[in-house]
């Protein structure tokens, strides 16, 4: 890591510590940027709607990920356990 702050932020991932809490729902995050992204789920308009079930999302990438539930597609697997 190029900076000590970078390595400290990385180490938190391995510790399981989630010091950044959402003030709306209480969910914890290991880094502030993930908390910031999460907060959008509470405030942003949900303009991306699934044609299959009608569920709406505030980010297109979340809709794309959701659509996989309907297809059953699982393009990635764990190299350690095969799941």
Q: Can you walk me through this structure?
A:
- With 83 residues, the chain is mainly alpha-helical.
- It is flat, with a radius of gyration of 17 Å.
- Strand 1 (20-21) and strand 2 (28-29) form a beta hairpin.
- The protein has helices spanning 4-15, 32-43, 60-71; strands at residues 20-21, 28-29, 48-49, 56-57.
- The mean pLDDT is 87.
- It is built from three helices and four strands.
- The strands form two sheets. It has a two-stranded antiparallel sheet with strand order 1-2. A two-stranded antiparallel sheet has the order 3-4.
- The protein is 43% helix and 10% strand.
- The protein has a domain at 4-43: Classic Zinc Finger (Double Stranded RNA Binding Domain, 2-Layer Sandwich).
Question: Descriptors for this entry?
Answer:
mainly alpha, Double Stranded RNA Binding Domain, 10% strand, 3 helices, 83 residues, single chain
Secondary structure blueprint with pairings:
Blueprint: H1 4-15, E1 20-21, E2 28-29, H2 32-43, E3 48-49, E4 56-57, H3 60-71
Antiparallel strand pairs: 1-2, 3-4
Main location: nucleus
Protein name: ZBT49 protein
Organism: Chroicocephalus maculipennis
């Amino acid at each position: 890591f190029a900076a000590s702050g970078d390595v400290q932020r990385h180490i938190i991932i391995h510790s399981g510590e989630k010091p950044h809490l959402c003030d709306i729902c209480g969910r914890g995050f290991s880094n502030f940027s993930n908390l910031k992204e999460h907060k959008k789920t509470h405030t942003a308009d949900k303009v991306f709607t699934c044609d299959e079930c009608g569920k709406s999302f505030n980010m297109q990438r979340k809709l794309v990920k959701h659509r996989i539930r309907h297809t059953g597609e699982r393009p990635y697997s764990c190299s350690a356990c095969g799941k």
